[in-house]
Amino acid sequence: MSTIQHPTKQLASVLFDLDGTLLDTADDLGAALNHVLSHYNKQTVVAKHYRPIASDGALGLLNLGFGATIKQYDYDVLRQQFLTYYQENIAEHTCLYPGVAQLLENLETNNIPWGIITNKPEGLTKRLLPYYPEFANCAVMVGGDTLTKRKPDPEPILHACQQINVDHKQCFYVGDALRDIQAGNSAAMTTFVAKWGYILSNENCQTWQADHIIAKPLDLLNFIN
């Protein structure tokens, strides 16, 4: 698997996952989890344990925090408590990963449209993005509930390509989870693992069958310029 390779076909667009790829949202998600745990007098979770699970959203984090005891609670209530706190504190600690701003600026300078396809609910995504002016020129955004299907199904990615009128076979998709790579591969895109994201230390990303694995956001420029 090459780490530096120039594309052999014209690049139409670059599409990204959000959490763990463009934005480091883990500490705000972890705070929401710990708020719910504290409400039920449960032991809170430290960052080193919740960060690798952050991409799995409310379900993954609540399962992490409550463990087997989650069956003793109404999950829908727990999820709503989690989401309410998160929505009200959505950008307290969240920040762009180093290099993301420069990467997006480079894409815009080269007239390459870029967009976001995330499993985060559309309402939360729309609430979060305006905090970061670097996202002002995002060409398309598809949330986890925008359509009836979400990643790893390729439909959200294909829908995004239709919205900005680009050939999906000439696009890159970048994400930090197996479902991102599965969706991108199913859409016949060139896929990149964002190794800086929320990936367990013992996870072997080589098995995901991505086209490339990159260590930091600006590494993507090696495939564009």
What do you see in this structure?
With 225 residues, this protein is α/β, with parallel strands linked by helices. The protein has two domains: 13-25 and 94-223, HAD superfamily/HAD-like (Rossmann fold, 3-Layer(aba) Sandwich), CATH 3.40.50; 26-88. 34% of the residues lie in helices and 12% in strands. The protein contains eight helices and eight strands, in the order ββααααβαβαβαβαββ. It has a six-stranded parallel β-sheet with strand order 5-4-1-6-7-8. It has a two-stranded antiparallel ribbon with strand order 2-3. α6 (122-128) links the parallel β4 and β5. The longest helix is centred in the N-terminal third of the chain and has 14 residues, at 26-39.
Give the gist of this structure.
With 225 residues, the chain is α/β, with parallel strands linked by helices. 34% of the residues lie in helices and 12% in strands.
Q: How are the secondary structure elements laid out?
A:
Layout: E1 13-16, E2 23-24, H1 26-39, H2 47-50, H3 57-66, H4 75-88, E3 95-96, H5 100-109, E4 114-117, H6 122-128, E5 140-142, H7 155-163, E6 171-175, H8 178-186, E7 190-194, E8 212-214
